[in-house]
Amino acid sequence: MPPSPFRIAVLASGRGSNLQALIDARRAGTLPIELVLVASDKVDAYALRRAEAAGIPTLALTPKSAPTRAAYDADLFARVAAATPDLIVLAGFMRIIDPAVLVPWAGRIVNIHPSLLPKYPGLHTHRRAIEAGDALHGATVHYVTAELDGGPPIACAEIPVHAGDTPERLAERLLVEEHRLLVACIALIAAGRITLDGTRVRLDGAALATPLRLGTDPW
Fold first, then answer.
1. Overall CATH class of domain 6-213
2. Fewer Cβ neighbours under 10 Å: the N or C end of the chain?
3. pLDDT the model gives residue 100
4. Following DSSP, what letter does each residue of 93-162 receive, concatenated?
């Protein structure tokens, strides 16, 4: 009997283009996963429409449904847990998550962030990279911890910052690499090749000294 597909729940607040990259890779047969739930804190998030079109169960739960942020996060993650995912993927989920709900998910929740972490945690990463005069910008997939965008990094993708770039143009160019990066990282995790050992990311059992780099490391 073949093994069950690796089960993934995705949390997204916006348009869901990284979610779509996972859907497309699954549909193409290059990513052996099952997307068991797409949840959002916004009822009008386009990510939910993408999930519905792909036949994936959805959940829209607004923060107004709970009296406190901690209560909301506990309710949201209880509902996500009911879908029994092996991994939670934050793909443009624009909320800071209460640390208490993350504890049971240590090593089983990842985020994709549009900067070369540890540079520029938080918002407005493209503008900040341009204003700093950076020659390179990029995206990072990392394990989620209580520290905002501060969990152990798995891999990154880099692009050059061009003269005259605007935040919008830089974001548009980076998005293509974000999609490739997320799919590649999820494939490694689903295959059991990437794991988290305490605060160390391991590839095939060996601790990574630095994050993997898309397009240079032999994945």
1. alpha beta
2. N
3. 96
4. --SPPPHHHHGGGTTSEEEEESS-TTS--SS-HHHHHHHTT-SEEEEEEEE--SSTT-SPEEEEEEEEPP
pTM over 0.85: yes
Q: Torsion angle of alpha carbons 47, 49, 53, 54, nearest 10°?
A: 20
SS3 7: strand
Q: What is the pLDDT of residues 165-188, one digit of tens each?
A: 999 999 999 999 999 999 999 999
**Residue 111 marked in a binding site:** yes
122 annotated to a ligand binding site: no
Q: How far is CA 26 from CA 49, 87, 141, in A?
A: 17, 15, 19
17 among annotated binding-site residues: yes
The helix (H) or strand (E) run that includes residue 34 is strand 33-40
User: Tokens 């994050």 sit at which residue?
Assistant: 211
What pLDDT band is residue 1 in, cutting at 50, 70 and 90?
Answer: low
- Per-residue pLDDT tens over the stretch 104-136: 999 999 999 999 999 999 999 999 999 999 999
Upstream peptide bond of 118 is cis (omega within 30 degrees of 0): yes
- Mean pLDDT for 32-40 is 98
For the chain, the domains span 6-213
Please report, rounded to a whole number, the percentage of residues in the chain having pLDDT higher than 70.
98
CB 141 within 8 A of CB 181: yes
Active-site residue flag, 113 = yes
Q: Considering Cα of 150, then 160, then 173, then 162, what sign does the dihedral take?
A: positive
Q: Which of 113, 126, 137, 142 is catalytic?
A: 113
Residue 186 annotated as binding site: no
